[in-house]
Structure formats: structure tokens, C-alpha cells
Specification:
By secondary structure, the chain is of the alpha/beta class. 35% of the residues lie in helices and 15% in strands. It has a 7-stranded mixed sheet, with helices on both faces. Strands 7-6-13 form a 3-stranded antiparallel sheet, with no helix packed on it. It has a 3-stranded antiparallel sheet with strand order 12-14-15.
Length: 389
């Protein structure tokens, strides 16, 4: 089917009649039944579904302990507290992430050190991290679901003794050397937001190897309260937060987890279809996977050579939206946000990440997309390129 020549933004007919979001949850009757069953249980929060979901994720990725939270942001906050991040303590991370990765450091009054990314994957580049002698924690982010170079980070860790955190909010279902990702760092964070591999509505999880760390995380999510087994008695030992997740959410998570292999397989199929359809376009730079790894394809981030088009990135997005294609942008470099600018961070700090941001467009990708949905996206891109070239 040949795309119409006149853009919908200029009065033409849109490629699609209905909106296609950049991502969306997939919920079926088995998920609804699981939540309904949990609603009929004796406990609908802090009950058996929470423990069951924690155990299932830990077993899946072969980590000894897991603690579920109300969000991945809450889990990151708890982990920064656990690692004693505070005033003067430096945490290194990427600017190519959602602000929560850095915000968790600031919640503890720590100092965020941003380092640049490699062009191919947009993940932290282990070769350009510089002096790590004063870094307490290194938080890597598996951008778009593509695992970082953890073997190289671990080599650096041996020399500099920092804590290694995998912000795997994008990458549940990814694999490294044919093994599911989740045990590559001292601590792994997963997200279960609706646009992620599986969902609990809102929710997150921290996975660790040490029992005492797991105990701290459980206390942190419950106001810093510790119980000693005496009925009705408890003590608050430190200032924690109410970051509990409910049994209703975890019941949904357990149901969704059964579908994870199918969901990830479909995302990988769609990513390969995009590559085949779009590789001929010289105006597009397509995303790569880390060697010896497979991405969960949370996102499909195109880089567009806007300098060769007669259109800005903003108008490019407006035109796609007019065609009912819900393209998005991931991510504005964290230190470009006004809050971080007021802290003294300057533009120009991470040139590769900044250049990528200025040229990046995330096109729709989710496990519920059909082949026709993908074809609609590609036709809209072709229509737009033909109009603007």
C-alpha cells in the first residue's frame, strides 16, 4: 500500500483512523481474574501475593532476595539510602534516562555525576568514565531494554570498589550471553509501569544478594519500622517511607509474568521488522544491541538526520501525531532540566547524549502491536520523509 502524499498536518487524510500510542499495556481476562481473586482474599496489601511476586521475579533472574515497591523510583530511593548516599557522596550515572535515576540520589542529598554514552547503544560508555576513585555508586541504565556492558563495569568495580546498580527499568526480559538479565550488578531495579515488559499498574522491585540489605529495603518501604515478633509491638529505627505495593498489583504482576516470554518475543519480532523496513532510509540511524546481549526492546529509538530534512524535530513529531502515530522522545539529558541547571550543571557536559537527544524519535513498539500497526508507522514515516526531503 502506497502512503498518501499530503500530510494530515496539512489537510490530508491520516494514515490511521485511531491513535497508536508509543507503548501500551496488554491486559487479558486471566489478568482480570487474578486481580479479582486477590480482591476476595483476606489481605489486599502486605499479603501473600506480594511475597509470591517477589519470589517469582527473584527465581526468574537468579537473585537471592527481592523487595517490591510502589514504583521503581521508590526502589531506587531505598537503594541509595541503603548504600548510605548523602551530602558529598558521589553517584555516577547516565544523562540518557528518565529523571528518576538521578532524582533518587538527590532525595538522599547526594551528588550526581553524569558521564557520556556510547553512540551505538546510548548506554554508559565504560571507556570514558574517567576517575572513579571518589564514586560510591555507579548506576547503569539499560536504555530501551538493551543491556549495558556489565563485564567491563565489573572490571572497573574491582579496581575502584564502588557499588554497581543496574537500573533495569527498561530491561526485564533482556538477556546477556543467553541468560536473563538481572544478576549482573550488586543490585537490580525493575519497573512495572504500564509501558514496560509486564505491568502491575505502578510498581517496581529491587533485587539484592545480601539478606541484611533485603531486610533494610523492607524496613525502608515501611517507615523504617522493625517488628520483633511481639504482638502489637514495633519500633521505628530510621526515617523510612510508605512505599508498599499492594496484593492487587502483585496478583496482576504474577499473571503478567506468565506472559513475559511471549511479550518479549513479540517486541523482538517487531524490532527486527522495523530494521528490515527502515534500513534503506539513509536519514535514519537505527538502534543497535550490545554484543552478546538481546534487548527487551522497551523502546525503538530512531535517530533522524534532521539537518538533511526541511523540518524540525518538533514539527516532525507533530506531523506523526497528525497521522495518529504516537511517537515520543527519550530522553532530554537529565541535567538539562531546570532543576539540575539550578544546581549548576551546564549544557555541553555529555555531547553524545545531547546530540542523540536532539535527533531522537521513539516510534511505537509494544507487545500488543499488530503487523498492520507497524506497517502504519512505517508508511507514516515514508509519507513524512517524502514530503520533507
Amino acid at each position: 500500500m502506497k502512503a498518501a502524499s499530503k500530510l494530515a498536518l496539512k489537510g490530508g487524510s491520516p494514515i490511521r483512523k485511531t491513535w497508536l500510542p508509543y507503548s501500551h499495556q496488554v491486559i487479558d481476562e486471566s489478568d482480570i481474574h487474578s486481580v479479582t481473586r486477590a480482591l476476595r482474599g483476606d489481605l489486599i496489601t502486605r499479603g501473600p501475593e506480594v511475597e509470591g511476586f517477589e519470589k517469582a521475579i527473584a527465581e526468574l533472574v537468579e537473585m537471592p532476595y527481592s523487595v517490591a515497591f510502589s514504583s521503581a523510583t521508590a526502589a531506587l530511593h531505598a537503594v541509595m539510602s541503603m548504600y548510605k548516599v548523602g551530602p558529598g557522596v558521589k553517584v555516577l550515572t547516565t544523562p540518557n534516562t528518565f529523571a528518576a535515576t538521578a532524582n533518587a540520589v538527590r532525595y538522599c542529598n547526594g551528588e550526581v555525576v553524569f558521564k557520556d554514552v556510547e553512540r551505538e547503544t546510548m548506554n554508559l560508555d565504560p571507556k570514558t568514565l574517567g576517575d572513579l576513585s571518589n564514586i560510591k555508586v555507579l548506576t547503569a541504565v539499560d536504555f530501551a531494554g538493551n543491556p549495558c556492558r556489565y563485564s567491563e563495569f565489573r572490571e572497573l568495580q574491582k579496581r575502584h570498589q564502588f557499588k554497581l546498580v543496574d537500573d533495569a527499568s527498561h530491561s526485564l526480559g533482556s538477556s546477556v550471553q543467553e541468560k536473563l538479565l538481572g544478576a549482573e550488578a550488586d543490585c537490580t531495579i525493575f519497573s512495572f509501569h504500564p509501558v514496560k515488559g509486564i505491568t502491575t499498574g505502578e510498581g517496581g522491585m529491587a533485587l539484592v544478594r545480601d539478606k541484611e540489605e533485603a531486610n533494610y529495603l523492607r524496613e525502608f518501604r515501611s517507615h523504617g519500622i522493625r517488628r520483633n515478633g511481639v504482638p502489637g509491638y514495633y519500633e521505628q529505627h530510621f526515617l523510612g517511607f510508605n512505599y508498599n505495593i499492594t496484593d492487587l498489583q502483585c496478583a496482576l504482576g504474577l499473571s503478567q509474568l506468565k506472559k513475559l516470554p511471549r511479550f518479549i518475543k513479540r517486541r523482538q519480532e517487531l524490532a527486527e521488522m522495523y530494521r528490515e523496513r527502515l534500513k534503506a532510509f539513509s536519514l535514519f540511524e537505527l538502534p543497535d544491541e550490545t554484543p552478546s546481549a538481546r534487548s527487551a526492546w522497551h523502546l525503538y529509538p530512531l535517530r533522524v538526520r534532521f539537518k538533511d530534512l526541511k523540518i524540525s524535530r518538533e514539527d516532525f513529531l507533530r506531523a506523526l501525531h497528525a497521522e495518529n502515530i504516537g511517537a515520543n522522545v527519550h530522553y532530554i539529558p537529565v541535567y538539562w532540566h531546570p532543576y539540575y541547571q539550578e544546581l549548576g550543571y551546564k549544557k555541553g557536559l555529555c555531547p553524545v547524549a545531547e546530540d542523540s537527544y536532539l535527533n531522537e524519535v521513539s516510534i511505537p513498539l509494544s507487545s500488543g502491536m499488530t503487523d498492520q500497526d507497524l506497517e502504519d508507522v512505517c508508511m507514516a514515516l515514508e509519507k513524512l520523509i517524502a514530503s520533507c526531503s
